[in-house]
Amino acid sequence: MISDGARTYSISELSRMFEVTPRTIRFYEQEGLLEPQRRGQTRVYHDKDRVRLKLTLRGKRLGFSLAEIREVIELYDALPDGNARQLRRLLELLAEKRTNLQRQEEDIRLMRRELDDVEGRCREALEALPENTEG
Amino acid sequence: MISDGARTYSISELSRMFEVTPRTIRFYEQEGLLEPQRRGQTRVYHDKDRVRLKLTLRGKRLGFSLAEIREVIELYDALPDGNARQLRRLLELLAEKRTNLQRQEEDIRLMRRELDDVEGRCREALEALPENTEG
DNA sequence: CCCAGAGTTGACGTTAACGTAAATCGCCGA
DNA sequence: TCGGCGATTTACGTTAACGTCAACTCTGGG
């Protein structure tokens, strides 16, 4: 499955690429996040699926639920032909996500401050220890 | 409970402040994240608890598990008197969190790009619609 | 004194996101 | 032809993080 042009991937390949289990990948399909082709009963993944998987995992790391991610993906897929309601709904969703990201950035900023603070105190405490013999 | 100096809070007050249920607050206590005083059987929260709760919720928004958050809090609490092993462990933890935050920042950056992209296509699709009669 | 309202305890229920295990299938090389 | 490897299906199990209820208890007000 390494011939070029339109690469395809087996489930175990994808699994290794992203360090998730095949089970996880099948589960995402079941939840409507992936739609691999079949060759017999075996799943065949294309780049589109790989990208979707990447986006899904990124979304997860940012704390989005699979359901949220799926809604975006679905609307996106129906994009060039979607009706006005769908499109507006998508814009709404996007705005929500942006707000979310903004809050997270703020949270990260604050969290960094606290890490700095804690680390400072921690180093002070280490300095103050009598046994500074081991490096 | 509004006398100043050392303010205290009831569980429902905290609950309203942070928009979480009392159940959640009790659960966090059970998980070792809060240690309110008691007045009879009733919990009495001080500013320390309020701060801890705030940190906990922030951690949650950033995708940390309660267990992770607790470990940091515990080590932090034992701070000025902790032994060298504890202190080093805490520094390790802090470094981990930092790495984590960095990855999240990158994820946010990438996610923003995609939102921009999707929004662009979405607006194009809206423009292309025949019925642009409603604003 | 009595009760309404806030708080508590204990226990069981729920949801998301997978893990795990068993049975089956299909293909490929010795 | 057979054995093994990778993939699949089905189904039940698990974990975190609470929700939901029922049955108290306590406390201040009228």
From TrEMBL, chains A, B:
Pfam families listed in its UniProt record: MerR_1
Keywords: Coiled coil, DNA-binding
Taxonomic superkingdom: Bacteria
UniProt KW Coiled coil keyword: yes
InterPro entries cross-referenced by the UniProt entry: DNA-bd_dom_put_sf, MerR-type_HTH_dom, MerR_fam
Residue ranges of coiled coil: 84-128
GO molecular function: DNA binding; DNA-binding transcription factor activity
Domain HTH merR-type: residue ranges: 8-75
SMART domains to which the protein is assigned, alphabetical: HTH_MERR
Signal sequence extent: none
Protein name: DNA-binding transcriptional regulator, MerR family
